[in-house]
Amino acid sequence: MSLVERQETMNQDSAVWDGGMGSVSDYVALLKPRVMSLVIFTAFVGLMLAPGNVHPVLGIVAILCIAIGAGASGALNMWYDADIDVVMTRTRKRPIPAGKITPDEALAFGITLSIGSVLTLGLLVNWFAGAFLAFTIAFYVIVYTMWLKRSTPQNIVIGGAAGAFPPMIGWASVTGSVSLESFVLFLIIFMWTPPHFWALALVKNGDYTAAKVPMLPVVAGPTSTRNHILIYSILLAPVGVAPYLLGFASLFYGAASATLGIIFVALAADIWRKREGDAAKAACWRLFKFSIFYLFMLFALLLGESLISGA
Ligand code: HEM
Ligand SMILES: CC(C)=CCC/C(C)=C/CC/C(C)=C/COP(=O)(O)OP(=O)(O)O
Fold this sequence. Notes:
16 helices
């Protein structure tokens, strides 16, 4: 089906649309605010860690642009995924499947905010950061959402790069370039994304099967997914310590990130061991929730150290 045909079908499918304009809270929901809050925080840490000084106003502009660009990509993701979001219990209350906002409105909103955030970042901060933001939005919307998500169980491994770029964009907003340090920040999120997501996908397996999305638990089964979660967690733990190993974080960060990494692996091993019933589900939820705490803590520690050393 061509994109135009798809769009027409989606508009007809929105027969449940209540006829009014979506409310402000519906538009805010289109930006996936809770997920994006951590994305924005990692971008902020990238900006704060970068060497050199950016004028505080430009720093705020950069973070706002990254936040709006990230939200816009969420809106475009919801526009494209409306047909599967309506099938999945976790997502069916989103503004498009719930009939609060039409696909056309979401598309226009997402495109407008994407263009606005990229141009503002490019014009006011620097064009390298602006182009990086445009690339990241395109990666999430076109490469992950439109292409990989529905075609391969490795969707989130490759597509996860989109969620890992924001600290590099924050860094680039200050320096106009990339560096080993900013690449390490990318690598932490890149290695973190698969266990973060597969822990949830193991529990929500039925949703993805119903929506015919080839997530790893659907295609390869729960045993293979548990193995994958454990392997990625074991790889993630040393990557989390890399800022210390490479000399841009203190021994305190090294010890804290190693401890958090060991807990991460222990929780992944717990998923690997507990395979049946409520205990298996509880183990998945524990790792999913801890994954968010883990990433937040690593970046918060890095931020704290940069503030102390800059004071
Ligand atoms: C391809 C990569 C990723 C996938 C497939 C993924 C998937 C998910 C899913 C399905 C949820 C469930 C809850 C919801 O829909 O709100 C979720 C929650 C969450 N994700 Fe991810 N995620 C990815 C990357 C990231 C990244 C890069 C971050 C931040 C750096 C992140 C942060 C969060 C947070 C904070 C939540 C909890 C939201 C809440 O409080 O409900 N995720 N993720
Ligand atoms: C600056 C910029 C553009 C940042 C983008 C950040 C980004 C790509 C975050 C990915 C986060 C995420 C929730 C993916 C969800 O996958 P999904 O869409 O398959 O989840 P769903 O089933 O909940 O819709």
